[in-house]
């Protein structure tokens, strides 16, 4: 999951949502899809939080905008 890009994770999550909304397939598959979707959502949220931290780290320095160290 960690190697999955934000865009790929979001696209897969959107596909899962469409599938679940369609109501096709077995209950077992719906549960597996839901679990995968929850993991993808967490991955997307984590990736967005990291991106937000990087954006927030931009500060004006004497030479113009620079990035502070972000853990």
Label this structure with key terms.
EC 3.1.11.6; 66% helix; Exonuc_VII_ssu_sf; two-stranded antiparallel ribbon; 2 helices; mainly alpha; exonuclease; Exodeoxyribonuclease 7 small subunit
Describe this structure in a few short sentences.
With 71 residues, the protein is mostly helical. Helices cover 66% and strands 11% of the residues.
3D structure, described in words:
By secondary structure, the protein is mostly helical. It has one domain. Helices cover 66% and strands 11% of the residues. The chain contains two helices and two strands; from the N terminus they run ααββ. The chain has a two-stranded antiparallel ribbon with strand order 1-2. β1 and β2 form a beta hairpin. α1 runs antiparallel to α2. The radius of gyration is 18 Å and the shape is rod-shaped. The two termini are 21 Å apart. The mean pLDDT is 87.
Strand content: 5-15%
Poorly predicted ranges (pLDDT <50, ≥5 residues)? none
- SS-derived structural category: mainly alpha
Strand neighbour order, sheet with most strands: 1-2
Mean pLDDT: 87
Number of domains: 1
Following the backbone from N to C, one meets helices and strands in this order, namely HHEE
Count up the helices. 2
Query: Cα-atom Rg, whole angstroms?
Result: 18 Å
What is the share of helical residues?
55-70%
How many β-strands, per DSSP? 2
Inertia-based shape: rod-shaped
For the sheet with most strands, the description reads: 2 strands, antiparallel
Termini Cα gap: 21 Å
